[in-house]
Amino acid sequence: MFSRRTYEKRREVLKNKFEKGVILICGNSLSPSSYLDNTFPFIQDSTFLYYFGLNKENLMGVIDIDKDEEIIFGDELTIDDIIWSGQQLTLEDQCKLVGVENNFSYEEAGKYIKDARNSGREIHFVNQYLPDNILRISEWLDIKPK
Fold first, then answer.
1. Beta pairing, strands 60-64 & 22-26
2. How many CB atoms lie within 10 A of CB 142?
3. Domains detected in the chain
4. What would the pLDDT profile of 17-55 be if each residue is shown by its tens digit?
């Protein structure tokens, strides 16, 4: 992981390439191999790593140009996660390490994007390769998946 300032500068450069709207950067989720609990080794999306630096599954990053805020959507570890993986930094603390002060549950990402779309705001995102992200974005933006 790079310094907090590195990620802040990267997001600032990206923000300056757009006049308005919301930039959605999807992280990856676990990909099942033969059944739900048997997953391939986790590899985070390169774009998400470049701008947000967190190598954890089920995260979404938002850079809201109009509101001048950055948000990471994701869930804190459960007690089961902690028992399985050991004590770790909270998501809130991880977000602060990369310069993001706002974080909300993963479930709230859809509401945020739908609200932005319904108010006529532009939503910017890169093409997705994971089916889960393709379906989420198509639902949130009411577009047909390709």
1. antiparallel
2. 9
3. 4-141 (3.40.350.10)
4. 999 999 999 999 988 888 777 888 999 999 999 999 999
Report d(CA 125, CA 38) in Å as an integer: 29
Residue 22 has which token pair?
Answer: 């919301």
Q: Provide the pairing of β-strand 22-26 with 123-124.
A: parallel
3-state secondary structure 126-139: CCCCCHHHHHHHHH
Mean pLDDT, residues 63-69 taken together = 97
- Own/partner pairs, 127-132, CB within 8 angstroms, 24+ separation: 128/26, 130/26, 130/28, 130/29, 130/31, 132/29
Beta bridge partners of 26: 60
